[in-house]
Amino acid sequence: xxxxxxxxxxxxxxxxxxxxxxxxxxxxxxxxxxxxxxxxxxxxxxxxxxxxxxxxxxxxxxxxxxxxxxxxxxxxxxxxxxxxxxxxxxxxxxxxxxxxxxxxxxxxxxxxxxxxxxxxxxxxxxxxxxxxxxxxxxxxxxxxxxxxxxxxxxxxxxxxxxxxxxxxxxxxxxxxxxxxxxxxxxxxxxxxxxxxxxx
Length: 199
Ligand code: SF4
Prior knowledge:
By secondary structure, this protein is an alpha/beta fold. It has helices spanning 51-61, 82-90, 145-152, 169-182, 192-196; strands at 2-11, 21-27, 47-48, 68-72, 94-99, 111-114, 131-139, 155-163, 186-188.
């Protein structure tokens, strides 16, 4: 598996589990190319690791025993499989994954966050995964109330709107607050890890 980084212990920064201690597994490679992507998922500098080595490194990183592995990318669904899911479960980890929703998962996880990027993929609101524990929409100038309505109609549990932390952050934050106020099923998510200076 092509892995960009394994790090921790740290805290989950976003969504329903913000503030929870965890370790991170970041896969390399994504099928989208969002203009404001804040993640380095390029294959350059990534390592090819076996399932056993990934689990060994996560266990080594989880020095305080959170046994929570946040699996992200890039797009983790491109590589996630039953062998890694089984090995993590056997080592006592719960797995929380964040995916862009354009690829079905080859194996289940304990908590699935779909963070759709309608601005950046064909079909816009057409997703491969329309049922998940959480949906987290990154709000830029293109995200409006109609977009939130599309996701409300899908089978998502918690609904989060999160301002894009680019050069127009203040405008995106104001827009997000306005949207959440109008659509009461939604909650504001902030990138807590950036605010407090965690990786
Ligand atoms: S889907 Fe996520 S990881 Fe992929 S390019 Fe977009 S923001 Fe970056």
